[in-house]
Amino acid sequence: MYVIPAEGLKVPDPVLRDHLPAEGREVPRDAYWMRRLADGDVIETLPPAAPVAEGSDR
């Protein structure tokens, strides 16, 4: 799941041993992150769209 920290909070990531960046990151849907979500420490959201490379035929 993709999460961002709630406004004004620094949320530790126990796997990477840093804080969740303001732009968020993909994290496992495990007990730790579900607890953070239930407590309102993080917000589940969609990941940012990947930029399309210039010169692409799409």
List keywords for this structure.
58 residues; alpha+beta; 3-stranded antiparallel sheet; 5 strands; DUF2635 domain-containing protein; DUF2635
Protein model, in words:
The protein is of the alpha+beta class and 58 residues long. The chain has one domain. Helices cover 16% and strands 22% of the residues. It has a 3-stranded antiparallel sheet with strand order 4-1-5. It has a two-stranded antiparallel sheet with strand order 2-3.
Condensed summary:
It contains one helix and five strands.
Could you outline the blueprint of secondary structure elements for this entry?
Blueprint: E1 2-5, E2 12-13, E3 18-19, E4 25-26, H1 31-39, E5 42-44
Antiparallel strand pairs: 1-4, 1-5, 2-3
- SSE ordering: EEEEHE
Kindly give the count of domains.
1
Distance between the termini: 27 Å
Report the radius of gyration as a whole number of Å: 14 Å
**Residues in β-strands, percent:** 15-25%
Label the overall shape. elongated
- Count of beta strands: 5
Largest sheet: 3 strands, antiparallel
Uncertain spans = none
Number of separate helices: 1
Strand order of the largest sheet: 4-1-5
Protein name: DUF2635 domain-containing protein
InterPro entries: DUF2635
